[in-house]
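re the bet — no i am not wrong, look at it urself. input seq straight from the record:
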Amino acid sequence: MLHTAKVQISNDEWFEANLNPFEYRSSLGIAIPNLPSDEVQRRFNGRAGRENLQQAFDFYKFILANTPERGMDRQRVLDFGGGWGRVLRFFLREFPPESLSLADCLTAAIECAQSLNTPFNIIHNQVNPPLPLQENTIAVCYAYSVFSHLPERQCCNWLRHLGDLLVPGGKLIITTRGLSHVDYIEKLEQMNTPYHLAPYLPKPAAIRKEYAKGVFQFYPMQGGGELSEDVFGETWITKRWLQERYLSLGFSACRFYTEFKTVDQCVFVLTK
């Protein structure tokens, strides 16, 4: 049975191993999951292949940098809204599979993850809390491009619940839309290039103005599958909005990072 954590392998080789799991799985002794087809990857992530995994890998490295190393192999990691597991797969270098859990509300995502021979725990959750996990058991929970789509009330409910799942001192790391996405929409508008979300959004200047005020912005739209427009849309969570609320949501610290490398969303790091 392939089961190894804390494997001594460079970042470059580990990235290539995940891009070519069939070539590395046996030699490394790690049950690296298969990859979905490029078509499926684009449907979930808007990109495929090396470019798709590079974004996930950059976010994974950021999470590691914000995770205490002490007793890491005994900690539990939760990927919330993780789709087919494009980020969680990288943590097999540091953690045994039984310490890793992937949760998603989309049936299509769960079925895809299950089809890839993933060795970690897979949870098919509802669009609203709770998750079928015990409180105070998760050391690190992260969510890439999940809170960039939630309305305000649901955002607060999930932040509070995920915080309850964390151990004291545990980290919740989430992403949300930032100004780079506003710039992207504005650039398309200036080039007269059609943008499929344009009918649901105000003009970029209006989004930017509200963002500068620190306003939580949510613009509903149909997300497909289990995601109706009352629980899915485009969301901008500002630094001011969350820093005014993190204490009441059960956290002791809140750090904010703007977009970096291939990670094209802003990141919050919350500490229980």
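see?? The first strand starts at residue 77 and ends at 80. told u. also The chain has a mean pLDDT of 94. so pay up
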